[in-house]
């Protein structure tokens, strides 16, 4: 079941039903806010894990590169030459893969973390500020309204006119705060459809690019792998 609609005209009525619908949106935005916080936390953990994995693979690759593979005797067969060279080939393959992974890691903050944090702080934060102002004006308006209703009809006509005029101004301030609050809620719900989803899509695209690079390298490596297997069988 979706969220109830919020109409600007309902701001002027300020009915109990309007307040209930408003509360539904507030609860949903708070839930979204908590979810984004958790997502950012988990995203940072994922990036940190990828960084640790990348460093481990780079160290492993460097070890392969530095190892000198020696065979018995002065004259090496073609098979032995290819087998001895294989460690450096493995190292080169892993290094190439890690270059793509490093790009994924380097872009992760700009692509994923920062946009999510910006959406949470700027968009949801703006709604929270709007609620503060709305609650403040609500309390003030109803306090003024209560005083206005308790005015004695025995007061001078000029005083009553002044009170009515001031009441109209206070009512307009309350309506403005209510309209602005409803607008911010509607705006963030619309923005959530793309500003919240686009960073996730961009991050996954980077991940898919990394996997695709691995597939391409594996395809290019296939002839060498078959030749090496032949050398090993010999």
Automatic annotation (TrEMBL):
Keyword tags: GTPase activation
* Residue stretches making up the BAR domain: 6-234
A molecular function annotated in GO for this UniProt entry is:
GTPase activator activity
- Can you list the GO cellular component terms from the UniProt entry? cytoplasm
Ribosomal protein keyword on record: no
Classification via InterPro entries: AH/BAR_dom_sf, BAR_dom, GRAF_fam
Taxonomically, which superkingdom? Eukaryota
Q: Per its UniProt record, what PANTHER family does this chain match?
A: OLIGOPHRENIN 1, RHO GTPASE-ACTIVATING PROTEIN 42
Q: State what protein this is by name.
A: Rho GTPase-activating protein 42-like protein
Q: Which organism is it from?
A: Lates japonicus
